[in-house]
Design goal:
heterodimer; A: alpha/beta; Immunoglobulin-like; four-stranded mixed beta sheet; 10 strands; 18% helix; elongated; B: alpha+beta; Alpha-Beta Plaits; Calcium-transporting ATPase, cytoplasmic transduction domain A; six-stranded antiparallel beta sheet; 51% helix; 19% strand
């Protein structure tokens, strides 16, 4: 095999392995415990992306959207029947009162960016 | 003088409102100030020479509250944001198109001016497209990378960067490549075209997406803005936010009813079509309920406001629609899972594509490998997958709300499309729910008009539902006579003296008790009426049986046709009632229903639903939502038939806003149409990626020797999400409730 083919093989395979590791082997970040209010930054995803809230307690999630990409213009919390438009560079507050313990995902309008609400 | 209304937050009791009001009134330039604790609204009138919105804001924050001056409702913010975004996109699209057109002319038109064919000029033209117009893709990709996530923008940034930077390197080191015997090419026009076409796709998609949430905006626009409030005998014109519970309101013909309430003076006809979908105007008299946002057509009336703010029917409908649009349909699960792995998978596929072409592809290998890799990155469209289900749900739920069908969540809509058995509660659902006089019979040689006025005068004194039915039937053509010694013989009937004659109306048992001589002829008639499930009232004058009145809760006129329609849709209708078997069968026969569950106690309805479900049937239960709540909740889909102003029927998956049975098949049609639309969208989104990604990889090359041009890939990609959204918008055109709509327009 010629040298250029060897180099291309090494580079492509490393790229594939890197992509797999970088995007798909990402560990879930530690849950941030919320007492009654938390600010979640919307910029290429949600920061923090995993939050822990108490059962039967009203918790306000303040989404601040910095990312102009229209992918992130909506946040959806399907188990709570919420689909909320997030105006750019503004805070939008969503209050939830979870009735059951469990894990609930929230995501962007196109289901590509995810976050998690752990109810304890 | 200027008047403003705005919400205030931070109040926790009525005295807070008083404090704010006092503070505002002391503020220089403020003429009047009203703060309403109930709906957290303030209205301030001030002299704008001496005072400003900022002064008002300052005064309120000085005592620890927050004024939201200029705050609008959420829908306005969304509309403004969309408008801004569209305007920005349009401008970018314009510049981008100019640069791209010049690049394409240079690259493709043989007789184009020489300077356009100059590679350095091409570099110059493509750079602003790549980094100014395309900046948003880099920014979004970078934000995602920081969180180790990727989206469509990552793919576009990657694809166009490969094309652009490869071209720059080729241009700068062209001599070096040539001396090494490597044939190179520049792709400036490719990167610019991709960016422009994808921008165009985004523009079209955004414009279409604005229409998917139109239903909410239309509902919000229904709200009346002002009301004529009568306080201390004076009529004031106030913004709707300032009306409180118990306020007396005057409504003029042609105006919108401001809020939900009860008529206390006057009568009118009201057009309720905008809320319940009822096409005919509804007659309203004193003590009748009126719904806010409906239109008063004929008379002037006064009403008491009973529900304000978020309690009104309209506000509840809007809330319910919003919640349903935010819910997830089970069918979405697969596409959601795929969407979350999609982008990394495409990046890996593109790298593999590059490698295969480079290793075993024809010469020039590098060019072929690059072109295929870019095509793969550009053609993959995760957005179409993500949009497929929610957009159809949004349009479908909105369409329902406009037709008086409120869907609680996407799951209810999905399950409703699979229903094959439908249980109907009889009273109020299949029947009108109130007794109506069907027929009268008299003995021979009697003055029927005179007997009618005796019956009318006597029944007018009773409050029994059957008596009310008789009064309603006779009032137009009977004379009212003086009634003496009226007695209500509980459970049996009524008795009184009119014109000196003793008049008796009631059951056969009452006649026997009072030793009335029964007419054999009329008694025979009574027997046949009973077989039709009618209630029979006997009338006697001076102990002589003179007449019979047959009363029944009649079948809704639309019931037989509706049942037929459901059967045509493959649904088995079953009637459930507390009536005895004979009565139940009589009614069911009229409706065209063959399966009947009779003599059911209210508490057993739920058990029957569960039993049917256990046999593997997908069961819908149609009831009034009040007595049937447990049965509605137990069914796969509960359909509550409203008619009142209470729409928040928790136990029902679908709430029908008017007591009209034709809404039942309409709801099924809506759900079937929505699910069909979702399947089309998913089919398109999955099919698109499954077919075109391999084509972009070059699977057709060994066979046909064709390779996909990345510019064509970007055109396909630009059209894929907009076609999903446009397909969802077709749901708006679906005709509900037409027999010939088996396949409908969809």
């Amino acid at each position: 095999m010629s040298i250029d083919r060897i180099i291309a093989t090494i580079l492509s395979l490393s790229g594939i392995i890197f992509t797999y590791w970088f995007f798909l082997m990402k560990k879930e970040s530690n849950a941030v415990s919320v007492t009654d209010h938390i600010k979640i930054i919307v910029d290429g995803g949600y920061t923090p992306s995993v939050i822990e809230v108490a059962k039967d307690k009203a918790t306000t999630l303040e989404f601040f959207r910095k990312d102009p990409s229209s992918c992130l213009e909506e946040v959806v919390i399907p188990d709570f029947h919420i689909r909320q438009f997030l105006p750019l560079q503004q805070s939008t507050e969503i209050t939830i009162t979870p009735k059951e313990v469990g894990e609930y995902t929230f995501h962007c309008g196109m289901s590509m960016f995810f976050g998690k609400i752990k109810v304890v | 003088m200027k008047k403003i209304s705005f919400p205030i937050s931070g109040m926790h009791c009525a005295s807070c409102a008083v404090n704010i009001q006092r503070k505002l009134r002391k503020t220089k330039g403020v003429e009047t100030a009203n703060v309403n604790y109930a709906n957290e609204q303030a209205t301030v009138e001030y002299d704008d020479a001496q005072c400003s919105e900022r002064d008002v804001d300052k005064a309120i924050s000085a005592i620890g509250y927050t004024a939201h001056i200029g705050a609008q409702n959420g829908e306005d913010i969304i509309a403004q944001e969309r408008e801004r975004e569209l305007k920005e996109l349009k401008q970018k699209l314009l510049y981008s198109s100019v640069f791209t057109a010049l690049l394409l002319i240079g690259a493709m038109v043989p007789f184009a001016p020489a300077f356009l064919k100059n590679m350095w000029v091409m570099w110059l033209l493509s750079t602003p497209v790549q980094f100014w117009i395309g900046w948003q893709y880099y920014r979004s990709a970078w934000s995602g990378l920081k969180n180790r996530t990727a989206n469509m923008d990552t793919l576009i940034a990657l694809g166009t960067s490969v094309a652009y930077f490869f071209s720059v390197i080729s241009l700068l080191f062209m001599e070096f490549f040539r001396s090494a015997g490597i044939e190179v090419h520049v792709y400036f026009e490719v990167s610019a075209t991709i960016i422009t076409l994808i921008l165009l796709g985004k523009f079209l998609e955004l414009r279409a997406k604005g229409q998917t949430s139109e239903a909410i905006k239309k509902l919000l626009d229904l709200q009346a803005k002002m009301a004529h409030v009568i306080r201390d005998g004076q009529e004031l014109e106030l913004p709707i936010e300032q009306v409180v519970k118990g306020d007396h309101l005057r409504v003029l013909p042609g105006e919108k009813v401001p809020l939900d309430g009860i008529i206390i003076k006057g009568e009118t006809a009201i057009d309720e079509s905008m809320v319940t979908g009822e096409s005919l105007p509804v007659e309203k008299n004193i003590h009748d309920k009126v719904i806010g946002a409906t239109i008063n057509q004929s008379g002037v009336f006064e009403m008491v406001a009973e529900k304000v703010g978020s309690e009104t029917m309209l506000a509840q409908i809007i809330e319910l629609v919003k919640q349903a649009q935010g819910s997830r349909a089970p069918i979405q699960k697969l596409s959601d899972t795929v969407a979350s792995y999609f982008v990394p998978a495409v990046i890996m596929i593109s790298l593999a594509t590059f490698l295969v072409w480079f290793l075993i592809g024809p010469e020039p290998r590098l060019m072929h490998a690059l072109v295929s890799m870019i095509s793969v990155l550009i053609i993959a469209c995760p957005c179409a997958l993500g949009l497929a289900t929610p957009t159809s749900i949004m349009v479908g739920v909105g369409k329902g709300a406009q037709n008086g069908i409120l869907v609680k969540d996407a799951e209810a809509l999905e399950v409703a499309s699979k229903v094959n058995t439908m249980l109907f509660d009889k009273t109020g659902t299949l029947t009108e729910g109130k007794p109506v006089v069907q027929e009268r019979a008299f003995i021979d040689n009697v003055d029927q008009n005179y007997v009618d006025s005796l019956i009318y005068s006597l029944e007018k004194n009773s409050h029994h539902p059957l008596a009310t039915a008789v009064v309603q039937f006779l009032e137009k053509h009977s004379q009212l006579r003086e009634v003496q010694h009226f007695r209500d013989l509980s459970g049996l009937g009524v008795k009184a003296v009119i014109d000196g004659h003793e008049v008796l109306i009631g059951t056969r048992t009452l006649m026997e008790q009072e030793q009335v001589t029964l007419s054999t002829k009329l008694d025979e008639v009574a027997k046949t009426w009973r077989t039709k499930a009618w209630t029979v009232s006997y009338v006697a004058v001076v102990q002589k049986h003179v007449a019979l009145i047959g009363i029944a809760d009649t079948l809704k006129t639309a019931a037989p046709k509706t049942i037929q329609q459901l059967q045509n849709m493959g649904v088995t209708p079953i009637m459930m009632t507390g009536d005895n078997q004979q009565t139940a069968l009589a009614i069911a026969k009229q409706a065209g229903i063959t399966e009947v569950i009779a003599e059911v106690l209210p508490q057993d309805k739920e058990a029957h639903v569960t039993r049917l479900k256990k046999t593997g049937k997908v069961v819908a239960m149609v009831g009034d939502g009040i007595n049937d709540a447990p049965a509605l909740a137990a069914a796969d889909v509960g359909m509550a038939m409203g008619g009142g102003t209470d729409v928040a029927i928790e136990s029902a998956g679908i709430t029908l806003l008017r007591s009209d049975i034709v809404l039942v098949p309409a709801a099924l049609q809506l759900s079937k149409a929505t699910m069909r639309n979702i399947r089309q969208n998913l089919g398109w989104a999955f099919g698109y990626n499954l077919v075109l990604v391999p084509v972009a990889m070059g699977v057709l090359y060994p066979l046909l020797h064709v390779q996909l041009n990345p510019m064509l890939a970007s055109a396909a990609m630009a059209l894929s999400s907009v076609s999903v959204v446009s397909n969802a918008l077709r749901l708006k055109q679906v005709r509900l409730n037409e027999q010939n709509n088996k396949k409908g327009v969809l």
